[in-house]
Amino acid sequence: MPAVPDRLDATDARLLLALSADPRATVLSLAQTLGLARNTVQSRLARLESGGVLDPFERRVRPEALGYRLGAYVTVQVVQRSLADVGEALAAIPEVLEVIGLSGVADLLVQVVAVDADDLWRITEQVLAIPGVQRTDTNLALRRFVDHRMTPLLERAAGTAPVDGG
């Protein structure tokens, strides 16, 4: 994956906000909305895409739509020399959505989805069977209070964020 640029400018942030508001917007409509030349919008979008700024489209698909109604976060303790191998093995499990390296007692935070409790049991057994995994702790996701979001940060970068009240 390409390195993400250090910093986006206000125009990039405005472009991403417009794209977030209308993901199917054409380059021409984005240019009109933002008051920019079509070529400017096109080159900036190409740079943002090739620079790894935009996540893959699959991030927008909700697991529930595929029948995976149960979500969980599994913390995993790993034999240190096995981190890379454990990461590869986790990537081979389709229900594993994301794996994040942590500092602290747990080494990895693994986001998984399951059809039901029995399916979650199967998945956690699969994780425990990976060579190098020492211990897991599974926490059910009961409710999402804040969806993944970038709009407040983009608004700040674009200079359009509301002013704090105090």
UniProtKB/TrEMBL annotation:
<keyword id="KW-0805">Transcription regulation</keyword>
<protein>
    <submittedName>
        <fullName>Transcriptional regulator, AsnC family</fullName>
    </submittedName>
</protein>
<dbReference type="InterPro" id="IPR036388">
    <property type="entry name" value="WH-like_DNA-bd_sf"/>
</dbReference>
<dbReference type="GO" id="GO:0043565">
    <property type="term" value="F:sequence-specific DNA binding"/>
</dbReference>
<feature type="domain" description="HTH asnC-type">
    <location>
        <begin position="8"/>
        <end position="69"/>
    </location>
</feature>
<dbReference type="InterPro" id="IPR019887">
    <property type="entry name" value="Tscrpt_reg_AsnC/Lrp_C"/>
</dbReference>
<dbReference type="InterPro" id="IPR036390">
    <property type="entry name" value="WH_DNA-bd_sf"/>
</dbReference>
<keyword id="KW-0804">Transcription</keyword>
<dbReference type="GO" id="GO:0005829">
    <property type="term" value="C:cytosol"/>
</dbReference>
<dbReference type="Pfam" id="PF01037">
    <property type="entry name" value="AsnC_trans_reg"/>
</dbReference>
<dbReference type="GO" id="GO:0043200">
    <property type="term" value="P:response to amino acid"/>
</dbReference>
<keyword id="KW-0238">DNA-binding</keyword>
<dbReference type="InterPro" id="IPR011008">
    <property type="entry name" value="Dimeric_a/b-barrel"/>
</dbReference>
<dbReference type="InterPro" id="IPR019888">
    <property type="entry name" value="Tscrpt_reg_AsnC-like"/>
</dbReference>
<dbReference type="InterPro" id="IPR000485">
    <property type="entry name" value="AsnC-type_HTH_dom"/>
</dbReference>
<dbReference type="Pfam" id="PF13404">
    <property type="entry name" value="HTH_AsnC-type"/>
</dbReference>
